[in-house]
Specification:
It is built from eleven helices and eight strands. Strands 1, 2, 3, 4, 5, 6, 7 and 8 form an eight-stranded mixed β-sheet that branches. Strand 7 and strand 8 form a beta hairpin. The longest helix is centred in the N-terminal third of the chain and has 13 residues. The chain starts with a helix and ends with a strand.
């Protein structure tokens, strides 16, 4: 998929896509997709609209930006303890350059509705309380839940979708909680400090998680456990990158297998620059910058007749189904 087509897809999905517009807040929706973009303010949207129209790629403003059936809200972007002071912003330019949120605190606010300090993952500002998330609520009513990203699966934004931790840098504990339920399934701080900071187990874990690996985020102990359990009843089926094999095709093949009810996809991190360069060589299509990821998750979950909640993020962008 070209970067232009992806921009159209990105804006089409928007923050929350519900198939029946007349059913307010998804009362009767079977699928909910939450897409998070890094840099999606009004000026980013305006610049993209102007580029799209001036280049001839599109001749109208997307309906989700103007249509009366789309509900839009602005949200504050500062972490716990932050504020907006119009007077300071007007008189001191340095004020607006301070107090930015990070991915962990922002994701916590999005998933739990509670602000926390930078670096926290679904725990309170002082680290004393574990916060309930929207995906846990979805699981509690029998929905399938999954996360798709081009960044590592235990990176702050996708990792926060399925974990609770004092520090976003505890990536092994975050990966363990997302994949297996217990943040210390494959190790403890005696092995590596990245196993620290957990706030108890989360069962059941996510049904589908697709993203990049990398030794700083998913170590050999985690990968080996996934490989050893792959294909076993009730366990995740593992799809990894293979040279010469299209990642999207591999995911779809797994999703079409009636015996696969839980799925993990681990691939190299893929970034593209504005000029189209930077694509990972040997990988024919980025699995999460087209509809393959969404179809895979939706298809896998619907084999059991359940609805789904997906988080989706790509290269400093994040999506949730």
């Amino acid at each position: 998929m070209s970067k232009y087509s992806f921009l159209i897809l990105l804006f089409f999905i928007s923050f929350l896509f519900i198939f029946e517009f007349n059913d307010a807040y998804g009362q009767d929706a079977k699928y909910i997709i939450l897409m998070i973009a890094d840099g999606w303010g009004p000026n980013h949207i305006e610049a993209t609209n102007k580029y799209c129209q001036s280049s001839g790629l599109c001749d109208y403003t997307p309906t989700y930006q103007t249509g009366p059936e789309w509900v839009q809200h602005w949200i504050s972007t500062f972490p716990h303890g932050g504020n907006y002071d119009p007077s300071q912003a007007w008189n001191d330019f340095n004020y607006v350059k301070q107090g930015a949120t990070d991915s962990a605190a922002a994701a916590t606010a999005l998933y739990s509705g509670v602000k926390t300090q930078n670096g926290r993952v679904n725990v309170s500002n002082d680290g004393s309380n574990r916060l309930d998330t929207v995906w846990e609520k979805a699981k509690n009513i029998g929905k399938g839940v999954g996360s798709i990203s081009t960044v590592p699966i235990s990176h702050a934004t996708p990792g926060a979708f399925c974990s609770h931790n004092d520090d976003r840098n505890n990536t092994y504990a975050i990966a363990d909680e997302c994949l297996f339920g217990d943040p210390n399934t494959t190790g403890s701080t005696s092995i590596d400090p990245k196993y620290g900071g957990g706030h108890g187990s989360t069962y059941p874990p996510v049904d589908v998680i697709i993203g990049a690996g990398g030794s700083d985020y998913v170590n050999d102990l985690i990968i080996n456990k996934l490989r050893g359990e792959s294909g076993q009843p009730g366990k995740h089926f593992l799809v990894e990158r293979q040279t010469g094999v299209d990642g999207g095709d591999a995911l779809l093949n797994a999703a079409n297998d009636p015996d696969v009810t839980k799925l993990v996809g681990l691939f190299d991190q893929v970034y593209r620059k504005a000029d189209g360069s930077g694509r990972t060589a040997g990988f024919s299509d980025d699995f999460s910058t087209n509809t393959t990821g969404e179809y895979t998750v939706t298809h896998t979950w619907t084999q059991g007749g359940v609805g789904s909640f997906l988080y989706d993020s790509g290269g400093k962008r994040a999506r949730v189904l």
